[in-house]
Amino acid sequence: MARELVLGVDAGHTVTKAVLFDGAGRPVARGSGMLPLSTPRPRWVERDMDAVWRTAHQAIAACLAEAGPDAGRAVAAVGLAGHGDGLYAVDDRGRPVRAAIVAMDTRAEAVLEEWRGTPVWSRALELSGTVPFAGSPAALLAWLARHEPGVLQEARWLLSCKDWLRLRLTGAVATDPTDASASFTDMRRGGYSPELLDLYGLGALAGLLPPVLACDAVSGTVTPEAAALTGLTAGTPVVTGAHDVDAAALGLGGTVPGELCLIAGSFSINQVVSERPVVDPRWQVRHFVRPGQWMTMSTSPASVANLEWFLRVTGAPAEQRDGVHEAIGREVEAQLDGPSEVLFHPFVYGSPYPGATSGTFLGLRGWHGRGHLLRALMEGVVLNHRWHVDALCSKLPISGAARLTGGAAHSAVWSQMFADALRRPVVVTDVQESAARGAALLAATAVGLLDGVTDPRAGAAVLRRHEPHPDRVAVLDEAYQVYREALKALGPVWARLDASRTAE
């Protein structure tokens, strides 16, 4: 059987997707698996690492089963993508030394408070292109060094999510420039920076960082053990891959410098590829998949995960918990006339602002129903994206329509909100699994099925285009002003609530 298919695997915070593509990036079959996040203590957000692998290999097996008998023998290569930041630590046998910590975790806030206003903060921005946040490897490792030093003594490798999956698929340890630049690489020269590690007090951990390979390099082959679990053929090449933010840009076709891409998923991701690094504490500058280019992204854990939380705690039907569905869109559309009566800050899992924040509904009245709350939630998520986009536009040359992917892109109502709030056209392509597709394009490039990730054969077609509606632009402009004013007013209240919880 000819090896003419590529498999893209994208391990997000709660969902792992495996998608089989032909050489031009057209989907052939899909498989997926859910893995709920665990919060064993306040501020902690974790995942069982063996369960992460189990969810992944089951998703791959389901995908290949859908494709038909012997599909595994048609796979020329496997590409990997996964959520960035967080920490997946393993020992010298490749076994987890503790549960994985994901990027939505905020246990390290006290570490950040110590670093803010010191040379750590300014020098980190200058060297790495980013200041640390609570879920970044730098902050988490500093926290572990204080509170769980035994974990670091036992660890042999400090990995990201996709790199843990590579280890289980191939037995090989590696990472790529996009994930490596989360905390410890030199923004301009590349490579791990001893000065950065020493700046965070983590110089002794330099030997635990994995080797860095090109995103489209073959970094291992599928082992017989992994082949038995997945249905892949032993010896199939596995390509290094990329952070899912970068992979999604590839999958969407959003690789042109100055073009805005939005990922509305667990995180609010607002990104643009640039030809030179432009630093600002409101965003992160990381290496892109192509040498000599940078991914500038302004992010926060404050997007569609808020909807998943809302549906779960309000007892929504199970079929509504997997994302934004048509029925939810109809509920919201029925309440779109007039100004925004209810305001929501989408900070259930965190925010882009320093200090204590939390998810907050304001303006509730007895006549408001679930549709009003859902509208407020969706608008709150969009307004948080607007804050990030406004920041990027203040210093970077961004023009034209924005490309939207993630859970919100599945809803025409929500997609239109993005166009109205951002006051620019929003394009949704026919790509449903953008990060998995980006990983697959890297795999196809590595084995010669494509001439590169921008090969014209791998273009994405526009599914919908949303133009801003002037009346809704005015409504959301007003809502944004109230949203920002409420942020300032609630700061002391959130701080007192957080202090009360901490004192318990």
Portion in strands: 15-25%
Distance between the termini: 63 Å
What spatial form do the alpha-carbon principal axes imply?
globular
The strand order across the widest sheet is 13-14-12-11-17-18-19
Structural class: alpha+beta
Number of helices: 16
The rounded Rg comes to: 22 Å
Give a quick account of the main beta sheet: strands, pairing sense, barrel closure: 7 strands, mixed
Q: Low-confidence stretches at least 5 residues in length (pLDDT < 50)? A: none
| Helix proportion range | 25-40%
Overall mean pLDDT score? 93
What is the tally of beta strands?
19
Describe the protein in words:
The protein is an alpha+beta fold and 504 residues long. It has 16 helices and 19 strands. The strands form five sheets. The protein has a seven-stranded mixed beta sheet with strand order 13-14-12-11-17-18-19, with helices on both faces. A six-stranded mixed beta sheet has the order 3-2-1-5-10-9, with helices on both faces.
Question: What distinguishing features does this structure have?
Answer:
504 residues; alpha+beta; six-stranded mixed sheet
